[in-house]
Design brief:
The chain has 560 residues and is an alpha+beta fold. The protein is built from 19 helices and eleven strands. The chain has an eleven-stranded mixed sheet with strand order 1-2-3-4-11-5-10-9-8-7-6, with helices on both faces. Strand 9, helix 16 and strand 10 form a beta-alpha-beta unit.
């Protein structure tokens, strides 16, 4: 008993894959058994006991249920509780049918043994999902088709003594064993055809991009306003360039972008904590059903247990600066330079204000002037996907912090709040040429005070890409390449400057990760994220101009 308890965790961990392989084997065995001849001696003894209709029905149903087991194997691999229950029931039922169709006791024992193996492992299949929602990948359908074709060829080989060339088809069908095998194989083939057509119709299409005019945009806003689990970057959902996967309750979503074969989720699920893992599984299965590569970008440490549950590989891609606000103080030598810069700009006449969303529209023309002037001095325009952009509908969705100089707005930053008030972040930060030097330092200091007054625990300064990667001999290849880019890639992007600028506020640094089904898919995903964010290959080489405050040449929230 103690030994069983010790091995139970390992058994539960291995059960989904092992169960899928065994059930797939059982299904293929049943399909092959139905397409091959029965033992004459056993069949004669059985025919004296059971009516012919029972024998024929058992033979036909056994083959069809064999195909059902092949399909259920996919659900077992995905750890669906409904697939487990259906598999156990079908295994024991087909064990009885194996006896009723030809007294094939070896087959019955194998089926019963697999059923007995799965029956006590209910805990290994925790996912609550209906079989009708099971996404079956093209590869899995191809495997089922191969099993059918193989069974058909096996049947032809066994019945090669029948001279099909010399006999019309109606005479061939007079041979009951041949007819029985053909009916069983044809039944399984028709069931497979029906299943394939149903999945073609039932498999959800790739979700479209949801913009401001889409009715589902209101659902996105509602979830953000009442979310138990959301990072400030979740507000990128309102940018209008994302696709969404909603939970069954409609109270959670996962946002993602598509480029080529890559489906890249921006951050983790947003909404209810108890729906996060199910959303991630559905995202992976939907991508798999569309022969796409799923990936997660910009996730934090709190997402890692769910990502491990998915079986994804993980790669660190940088660090996020989070400044604790409750015990924050500018006193002392560590923040003396920031304190002096803030005081100089304030004493020179700069003022600070946070404009609430319902009042942002009135000052949009002023903000647009500042944004346009700022963009004229940059190598490229607004970014997308993992960065915010100056779009009127997007800017109006958030509070906007502004710095005024001589009565005019000369700098601004739109803010990303969170419903739980755990953290807020700064998205776009833009300033005009008329702004005094160190105006952004002034804005940061004022926002720190404002966030503390609003009850936020942290100010999220955003990511420092490739920061914190260690170049060690045994480190993963992607980690070592990332460190090399951080050290030598200043001509491509101001990696060290971004890290240094944020570090002068002495924040806590928290790792950020990317995840995918395999390590090699993460490299492809990161390339596609760069293309999604930059709008193409040309945008990948854009970087801030020399002499600018690092991190100010683009959104400070999530720097790709």
């Amino acid at each position: 008993m103690a030994l069983r308890r010790e091995f139970r965790p390992a058994l539960l961990s291995a059960a989904p894959l092992a169960g899928a392989i065994l059930v797939m084997f059982a299904g293929a065995m049943l399909i092959a058994s139905g397409a091959t001849p029965s033992s004459p001696e056993r069949f004669m003894r059985l025919s004296m006991t059971l009516p012919a209709l029972v024998i024929e029905t058992s033979h036909f149903a056994s083959s069809v249920l064999g195909l059902v087991l092949v399909m259920l194997a996919f659900g077992l691999r995905s750890r669906l509780d409904a697939a487990w229950a259906a598999s156990v029931a079908v295994l024991f039922l087909t064990a009885l049918l194996a006896l009723a169709k030809g007294m094939i006791w070896e087959e019955a024992l194998i089926l019963a043994a697999i059923g007995a193996f799965l029956a006590p492992l209910r805990a290994a299949f925790p996912r609550k999902a209906a079989l009708s929602q099971m996404e079956v990948s093209p590869g899995w359908l191809l495997s089922a088709a191969a099993a059918l074709v193989g069974a058909g060829l096996l049947g032809l080989w066994f019945f090669q003594h029948v001279n099909y060339e010399d006999q019309p088809i109606w005479k061939t069908m007079m041979d009951r064993d041949v007819a029985r095998s053909i009916r069983a194989w044809a039944g399984a083939a028709l069931a497979f055809l029906g299943f394939g057509i149903w999945r073609l119709i039932a498999t959800a299409a790739t979700p479209g991009v949801i913009g401001e005019e889409d009715p589902d945009f209101a659902r996105v806003r509602a979830i953000l306003a009442d979310s138990e689990a959301a990072e400030p970057t979740s507000n990128l959902a309102l940018l209008g360039d994302k696709r969404f996967l909603f939970s069954e309750s409609g109270r959670s979503f996962l946002m993602f972008g598509v480029r080529g074969r890559s489906w890249v989720a921006m951050g983790g699920p947003v909404g209810r904590r108890d729906e996060r893992l199910e959303l991630l599984w559905r995202f992976r299965e939907m991508a798999d059903a569309h022969a796409a590569r799923p990936g997660l970008y910009g996730i934090g440490p709190e997402d890692l247990p769910d990502v491990v549950e998915l079986g994804f590989s993980i790669q660190k891609i940088g660090e996020c600066a989070r400044l604790p606000l409750r015990d924050f103080a500018f006193a002392g030598q560590t923040r003396a330079k920031i304190r002096r810069a803030w005081r100089q700009v304030r004493d020179a006449g700069a003022t600070f204000e946070v404009i609430q969303p319902d009042a942002v529209e009135a000052c949009l023309p002023e903000l647009a002037v500042v944004s346009d002037e700022w963009l004229e001095g940059q190598p490229g325009g607004d970014k997308t996907f993992s960065l915010g952009g100056f779009q009127p509908s997007y800017i109006k969705a958030f509070p906007v912090a502004v710095a005024r100089w001589e009565g005019r707005i000369v700098a601004f930053a739109n803010l990303w709040p969170t419903a739980c008030c755990e953290a807020f972040a700064i998205d776009l930060m833009r300033y005009s040429q008329a702004a005094p030097k160190r105006i952004m330092d002034f804005l940061f200091v004022e926002l720190i005070s404002w966030g503390r007054e609003q009850g936020y625990a942290y100010l999220d300064f955003g990511n420092a890409p490739l920061a914190g990667l260690e170049d060690r001999p045994l480190a993963p290849v992607l980690t070592r390449v990332g460190r090399l880019m951080f050290d030598l890639g200043e001509d491509v992007y101001n990696f060290q400057g971004v890290r240094s600028y944020k570090d002068k506020f002495h924040p806590d640094w928290e790792p950020r990760y990317a995840a995918g089904p395999a390590k090699w898919t993460i490299a492809l995903m990161l390339a596609d994220v760069g293309l999604l964010t930059s709008g193409g290959f040309a945008g990948l080489t854009r970087r801030p101009r020399k002499g600018e405050a690092p991190g100010m040449a683009t959104s400070t929230s999530v720097l790709s």
